[in-house]
Amino acid sequence: MSVEGHVLANAVIALLLAACAGLAVVIHRSELWRAAAVELWRRRPIALLVVAVYLVIAALDSISWVGGGEVGEGGDVLAMHQPRSLIDRLFPLDFDEKSYSAPLASVEFYGGDPLDHPGRHLLGTDILGRDVLHVMLDGTRIALLVGGFTSLLVIPLALLVGVSAGYFGKRIDDVAFFVMSVLMSIPDLLLLIALIMAMGRGPLQVCIAMGVTSWVGFCRIVRGETFKLRELDYVEAARALGVSDLKLIWRHILPNLMHLVVITFVLTFSGLVLSEAILSYLGIGIDGSWGQMIDQARDELARDPIIWWNLAAASAALFGLILAVNFVGDAVRDVLDPRTLRERQ
Amino acid sequence: MSEPVLRVHELVTSFPAGRGRAAAVDGVSFQLAEGEVLALVGESGCGKSVTALSLLRLVPKPGRIESGSIRIAGREVLTLHVSELRSVRGKEAAMIFQEPMTSLSPVLTVGAQVAEALRLHEPMSAAQARRRSVALFEQVRIPDPDARFDSFPHQLSGGLKQRVMIAMALALKPRLLVADEPTTALDVTIQAQILELLRDLQRELGTAILLITHDLGVVNELADRIAVMYAGRLVEEGTRVQVLGEARHPYTQGLLRAVPSLGRRGERLAEIPGVVPRPSERPPGCRFATRCPVRLPRCASDPPGDTPLAPGHVARCHVVAQELAR
Amino acid sequence: MSAAAPLLRAEGLRVWFPIRKGLLQRTVGWVRAVDGIDLDVPAGRTLALVGESGCGKSTVGRSLLRLVEPREGRLWFEGVDLLGLDAPAMHVYRRAMQIVFQDPQGSLDPRMRVRDAIAEGMQSFGIGANEAERSERVAALLARVQLDPAQMWRYPHEFSGGQRQRICIARALAVEPRLLICDEATSALDVSIQAQILNLLRDLQAELGLAYLFITHDLGVVRYLADRVAVMYLGQIVEEGETERIFGDPRHPYTRGLLAAVPSVDPNRRGVRAHVRGDVPSPAHPPSGCRFHPRCPEVFERCPREEPRLYPVGGGVSRCFLSEPAESGGTR
Q1: Chain B hits for C160, Cβ within 8 Å
Q2: Of A120, A103, A136, A53, nearest to A313 (Cα)?
Q3: Alpha-carbon distances of C126 from C122, C129, C131, rounded to whole Å
Q4: How would you classify the pairing of strands C26-41 and B20-32?
Q5: How far is CA B93 from the centre of its chain?
Q6: Distance between CA atoms of residues B271 and A224, nearest Å
Q7: Distance of CA A136 to the CA centre of its chain
């Protein structure tokens, strides 16, 4: 990834982390949300910890700077001038081999020549000789970037359109619904490919493209829920009390949509990560992602003997994250369901 | 004297509450004779609906029947195997619910549902089932019964749906009908029609009815005997005239005085201050003590026992016992 | 009828909801929820609006507050034409008329503390100089509805149904209204709790001189609380008059049917009669002539052909040919 792309991606991750911190503060302040968070921890501590581990890895991988490290003879001097993150620095600068090697092997896979760093590649090396574990850890950042940043784009847009359509109805709803219907009728994959072709292949472009295809589903849910909320007695009571529309939306509608936002975010997160994997398989994903690692499996599985460690590492990482997120998402849905809120009292 | 159609003894049904469980029905005992109408009366949260569901073991999880005995037509329901239970449900005892909208499947015609109920318990062809169903519709006074057989629930009004429910329940001529708030969701003019219908059907078929309701007016119309429930326990029991006309328990009295009936204007409605205690917050001793206008010191700690007032009339209250002793 | 000008007067109020079908959502018909209502609510007194489901009484309540806009009709509050006001002007009048709903569950925002819910109206109308003063007022209001002021920082789900209804009343009173519309305000409550709330409402009326429009289907409550009663059926008023007259000498067959259908708790009075047959027709297709004629036990041949007007009857009105004065052509 280029230096500029790197800096941008780091900035985004920093933003995301700041958002998380802000969220934590908000949750802590509100009694209702605090109780929900405690309940969530009670139900799925392991899944939450797993997600936290991924988050930490991604965060550590975002703190990068140029400099430090030494290169041995005939090593890659250029690499010394690339920004390297904390994760990168866990591995020696000149860690690459020439090509494939099995996990913990001391010789190359083809040919049997001795490795530069025998027995130290825990998950072997890929076709370029890169340490698979390293690549896998780097992929974490991308996965979380894809899920988190895209959601950051999607959620405010979907809320804006969905609430406007649901609350004000009539003309605004007609237009919004028309736009949504058109977008929904275009197959996601085709639209994604078209957008990425048009915008180029950077991580930002991929996120934007995925955002365009995924906001509609969420928007529909928000619109439906806003319709429902608008008819509730307490909204009517607020109107009778002279509260203006905007204040009503801000004070009554949005807070009661938040549980939906959280649930949808967690559930679409996994969808987004998987979508990126599919894009990589088509060759238009983000460089360095797990999807790309899986893409290489096409070649690797055809060889004899099979090269499996690249695919295994990426799949395991992907599976672990999505499984954990789905467990958490399920628990989040239970915890935030307004009915269980009542029952718990 | 013949065996009572329904005999409930020390029934305890619990639900999770806080960390442990709390008894929604806490040691309730009563009997229902053949052809009799017993009304189980109380306000929300008193446990009357849970009692009704317990009778046919329909209590939704996480609720659980803890102990006690329920005998329907002489058979102990709580120890029956599931397949035997199915023969009791519908045939010996049937149930109708408050919300006709959710009690009928929206994807089947009402006729199909009644016919299904019939064919589950008795062998008959589809044509026979249809004839019997239409006849039942006539019996519950559904106008144009043959056409109505092919209607879907959403095409029917609340009153008509309730009639269909009654037809389904009485299809196999059960000896016991459990009616859980059968008219609460209906308008008053429709309620009057259904009350008339239930009264006439009950006389015709001789079905015993356990009527669950909070509406004392409905109780007055249908019941032979009344049992008043509060916070999981029965507090007073007697004939209709005894309980409505000569109520002795302070809760029953409070309840009767709180009803704004057509007969009064001007005087203040008697209130019962406070609220029903939650199952996890029930006091030891008499559960009504915290709201009782005439409570004694011992009411807070001693659960009161039965005080017979007249043949068939019982109250559970220390104050009443004390007054009687004088 | 009282000689003084009424606090609120409605004339010829109509609220029709469009029925839309098809791809282009064309209006194919109308649900005539409120179809020509005249109402007077005198200051400091209670008018009860009675009827069964589908009669339009709830819609009347909401249209008086312009929470739903009437299609036709006039509406005056203390002589001011409300329907002619623009939004900022209407805002001022909103303060004078408030509403309490039926469902204690849905009437309060579950994510808002009770204190904030009650203070919301105050903020909207600029009552109270700052947050601290508003909190004081909230405390006083809670005390007035017999709740512990210290509870104001709790959430609605921590209160029982009756308590939540008191909170709703406090919220309505916070803006110092002169008219309170109670839309089935006690129908979802247990009998013993209902008694508490009804007594509270009576006390508040005596203390604050509030006028009530009490919308309900429960005739017992009507008798207890109301000075005048208006009976609604399928969007129209079919009978109106003083409470005692309506209960003692009902003229419209529907009113008589309603009263005969209410069961009593007196063990010596048994036997409700279902005089009114059949089911309520859809407000989208009201019957021809007199809307009640398909269900009326006293129907005769004129009824399906002509629509009866409101005829004066004992200090009120009745929409039935049987009440038509003899001089104007007789009845049958």
Answers
A1: 275
A2: A136
A3: 6, 7, 11
A4: unpaired
A5: 13
A6: 43
A7: 15
Given B196, B214, B276, which is nearest C274 (Cβ)? B196
DSSP C310: P
CB contact under 8 A, C220 and B192: no
Q: Is residue C59 over pLDDT 50?
A: yes
Measured in whole angstroms, how far is the alpha carbon of residue C153 from the centre of its chain? 31
- Cβ-contact B258, B214 below 8 angstroms: no
Residue C209 near residue C45 (C-beta atoms within 8 A) = no
Percent of chain A with pLDDT over 90: 14
In chain A, residues with a C-beta closer than 8 Å to the C-beta of C106 are: 232-234
Which residues sit opposite C77 in a β-bridge? C8, C80
What pTM value is reported for the model?
0.85
Q: Are strands B75-76 and C97-100 parallel, antiparallel or unpaired?
A: unpaired
Taking alpha carbons only, the member of B254, B249, B253 closest to residue B299 is B249
Q: Is C112 on the interface with B (CB under 8 A)?
A: no
Q: Could you tell me which of B245, B216, B246 has the C-alpha nearest to residue B229? A: B216
- Predicted confidence at residue A342, as pLDDT, reads 54
The Cα–Cα gap between C141 and C128 comes to 13
pLDDT tens by residue, C268-282: 888 888 888 888 888
Give residue B133's pLDDT band: very low, low, confident or very high (50, 70, 90).
very high
What would the two tokens of residue C214 be?
């009490």
- Residues forming a β-bridge with B213: B41
Written as six digits, the tokens of A308 are 């499996």
How many CB atoms neighbour CB C278 within 10 A? 15
Q: Is the Cβ–Cβ distance between B34 and B175 less than 8 Å?
A: yes
Contact C281, C32 (CB under 8 A): no
The pair phi, psi for residue C200, each rounded to 5°, is -60, -45
d(CA C322, CA C308) in angstroms, rounded, equals 9
Enumerate the residues of chain B whose CB falls inside 8 A of the CB of residue C226.
none
pLDDT of C30 > 90? The answer is no
The b-or-e profile of A122-147 (16+ CB within 10 A means b, else e) is ebbbbeebbbbbbbbbbbbbbbbbbb
Q: Is the confidence at residue C1, as pLDDT, over 50?
A: no
Q: DSSP for B98-127?
A: S-HHHHS-TTS-HHHHHHHHHHHHS---HH
For A25, counting Cβ atoms within 10 Å of its Cβ (0-12 exposed, 13-18 middle, 19+ buried), the class is exposed
The Cα–Cα gap between C296 and C291 comes to 9
Alpha carbon B211 to its chain's center: 4
In this structure, chain A runs to a length of 345
* Mean pLDDT to the nearest integer, C301-306: 91
CA B100 to chain CA centroid, Å, is 16
Residue keyed to tokens 């001097």? A77
Query: Which two three-digit tokens encode residue B180?
Result: 């859980």
Token pair recorded at residue C203: 């006390």
For B48, B182, B213, C307, the CA distances from B219, given in Å and listed in that order, are 14, 11, 7, 39
How does DSSP classify residue A251? I
- The number of C-beta contacts closer than 8 angstroms across B and C is 136
Between CA B45 and CA B279 the distance in angstroms is: 9
Tell me, yes or no, if A256 comes closer than 8 A to chain C by beta carbon. yes
Cα angle: B69, vertex B71, B76; to 5 degrees: 75
Packing angle of the helix pair A3-29, A132-168 (nearest 10 deg)? 60
What dihedral do alpha carbons C133, C139, C143, C148 form, nearest 10°?
Answer: -170
For the record, the structure tokens of C37 come out as: 């209502």
Residue C227, chain B, CB below 8 Å: the answer is no
Non-local (6+) Cβ contacts of B87 within 8 A are B121
Interface predicted TM-score (ipTM) over 0.95? no
Write the burial class of residue A35 (CB in 10 Å: 0-12 exposed, 13-18 middle, 19+ buried): middle
In chain C, which residues have their Cβ closer than 8 Å to the Cβ of B217?
Answer: 262-265
Q: Take residue C7 and report the two structure tokens written for it.
A: 């606090």
Distance from CA of C74 to the nearest CA of A (A): 19
